[in-house]
């Protein structure tokens, strides 16, 4: 069983800050580039994202009312969430560091007649360019794929306006999450490609909440996303032991 010790996120050095070293794991980018053409196929290895997307959209929309909101989606991948928010009336920018998923996202949005701005740029860099310009920032299923998640969280806090809302989702780090999200989802049920997640990169809710507070965000709510392998249905509840969403607000 992997160690469940508390994970620490390194503080960026002066050199990193000055040279703007991207907070990117090239191996993670390569994984999703290789699967990009499958992104919009609901029966592909991205089926779990298709299954949870309505839950994520509703969770966000119920709390911020998406129509007319200016939103940035950090780690947008092939655009499932970005396009979904745009369809509900938001003005959406989606960013990612994967070239192939972004190409798929642009083509799908064009064919669907949905306006989304897609950019290949790190969260930290666009935060320097567009500080305080967004009503809503979303960063879902992305933090567990970067070397320094706290850096992305700080960028999210910089991008959102005072009084704006930020949404995160990721996977808890504990023995149950290891068994369900990695062994179960990747090796037994084969809902995801093997190697999609690394146990050491998973994030406890207490860690995520701490990084959010350090970035000037106030946590408003945490909800679990639970999968029933018998009904093959996801639902939201209060069980955050495996997959979870977190809603935070930037103070006025």
Keywords:
252 residues; eight-stranded mixed β-sheet; 3-demethylubiquinol 3-O-methyltransferase activity; SAM-dependent_MTases_sf; Rossmann fold; 8 strands; 9 helices; 24% strand; EC 2.1.1.222; alpha/beta
Give the topology string: H per helix, E per strand.
HHHEHEHEHEHEHHEEE
* CATH fold-type name of the domain at 26-168 and 198-222 and 245-250: Rossmann fold
Stretches where pLDDT falls below 50 for ≥5 residues?
Answer: 1-19
Percentage of helical residues? 25-40%
Give the N-to-C terminal Cα separation: 44 Å
Structural class category: alpha/beta
State the gist of this model.
Its EC number is 2.1.1.222, 2.1.1.64. With 252 residues, the protein is an alpha/beta fold.
Topology:
Blueprint: H1 14-19, H2 26-34, H3 47-64, E1 70-74, H4 80-87, E2 91-96, H5 99-112, E3 116-120, H6 123-129, E4 134-140, H7 149-159, E5 160-171, H8 175-188, H9 205-214, E6 217-228, E7 233-237, E8 243-250
Parallel strand pairs: 1-2, 1-4, 2-3, 4-5
Antiparallel strand pairs: 5-8, 6-7, 6-8
Helix pairs in contact: 3-4, 6-7, 7-9
Describe the structure.
- The chain is of the alpha/beta class and 252 residues long.
- It has a domain at 26-168 and 198-222 and 245-250: Rossmann fold, CATH 3.40.50.
- 38% of the residues lie in helices and 24% in strands.
- The chain is built from nine helices and eight strands.
- The protein has helices at residues 14-19, 26-34, 47-64, 80-87, 99-112, 123-129, 149-159, 175-188, 205-214, and strands spanning 70-74, 91-96, 116-120, 134-140, 160-171, 217-228, 233-237, 243-250.
- Strand 4, helix 7 (149-159) and strand 5 form a beta-alpha-beta unit.
- The longest helix is centred in the first third of the chain and has 18 residues, at 47-64.
- The protein starts with 13 loop residues before the first helix and ends with a strand.
- The model is unreliable at 1-19 (pLDDT under 50).
